[in-house]
Amino acid sequence: MKEFSRNERKRDKTVGFVPTMGFLHEGHLSLVKKSLEECDTTVMSIFVNPLQFGPNEDFEKYPRDLERDTALAAQSGVDVLFIPDAKEIYPSSLSVSMTAKQRTDVMCGASRPGHFDGVITVLSILFNLVQADRAYFGQKDAQQVAVVQGLVNSLMFPVEIVPVETVREQDGLAKSSRNVYLSPAERKQAPILYKALKEGEKSLSHLGTQETIKKMRDMINSSADGKIDYIEILKYPDLTPLVLNKGKVIIALAVQFDKARLIDNVIFTMKEE
């Protein structure tokens, strides 16, 4: 992988990188499309990273279909599909550990201690191997984008992080590998998440933070059986409390259905009135 990227650079080719955990859907393919538009060569990795799964999370059950993924990657125009084995990425116990110190104690990070440490560890390894000019991440995982941007800025990785807008089903549900775990009834209920987010965006300026969150909670609880994990309104990408209703804002939520935990968000700029 390193040799390939070095050779591309010698030929003055730009390299775009799309890191994934596989089970590809249109969200992943939108990242590929963006890379193809901006870079000469596109590398996609498929690696289900054990370090970012907690003890009671779904590492073993995480959906995998390498044959289908390979076909989709080829059809979408990926130049190199990089599929390392866990023993190659982590050949022995790591002699260093990485800790994400900011942007991790809210949203998903609050209930998944250590998750983002696993994310920044594997991405540091992958960035060093792929040596890309740009790396593409879906905005659906907005906290991950913020944490990765912090990693790149702090350690001065020579790669530009490019967030790509969330891809949605026609009814607004964000595309996700975990959507396959929704029951038919839950799938019908799930679009309320995005509707609540859009209502929150509309309401925030005149209702304020707590009233907006309450309104969103009521919307979801009246229309879905899932249990709300969190609804948060924060500055973005700092992920700190919103003191003044101005600047870049994220409204984010997570809802636990029977076998699927869904996350979604909207990011927008509030102007002083």
Strand content bin? 15-25%
Strand order of the largest sheet: 3-2-1-4-5
One letter per element, helices H and strands E, the order comes to HEHEHEHHHEHEHHHEEE
Structural class: alpha/beta
What's the architecture of the largest domain in CATH terms?
Answer: 3-Layer(aba) Sandwich
Shape field: globular
> Quick one: CATH superfamily of the largest domain?
HUPs
State the CATH class of the largest domain.
Alpha Beta
Number of domains: 2
Count of alpha/pi helices: 10
At CATH level 3, the topology of the largest domain is Rossmann fold
Unreliable stretches (pLDDT < 50, length at least 5) are none
Subcellular location: Cytoplasm
Binding site for ATP: 21-28, 138-141, 167, 175-178
Binding site for (R)-pantoate: 52, 144
GO cellular component, one term: cytosol
Give a verbal description of the structure.
The structure is a single chain. This protein has helices spanning 2-10, 26-38, 66-76, 86-89, 107-111, 115-130, 142-155, 184-189, 192-207, 209-223; strands at residues 15-20, 41-46, 80-82, 134-138, 160-164, 227-235, 247-256, 261-270. The protein has 273 residues and is an alpha/beta fold. Strand 2, helix 3 and strand 3 (80-82) form a beta-alpha-beta unit. The chain has 2 domains: 2-164, 3-Layer(aba) Sandwich (Rossmann fold); 177-270, Pantoate--beta-alanine Ligase, Chain: A,domain 2 (2-Layer Sandwich). The model has no long low-confidence stretch (mean pLDDT 94). It contains 10 helices and 8 strands. The N and C termini lie far apart (52 Å). Helices cover 40% and strands 20% of the residues. The chain has a 5-stranded parallel sheet, with helices on both faces. Strands 6-7-8 form a 3-stranded antiparallel sheet, covered by helices on one side. The chain is globular, with a radius of gyration of 19 Å. The active site is at 28 (proton donor). One of its GO terms (biological process) is pantothenate biosynthetic process.
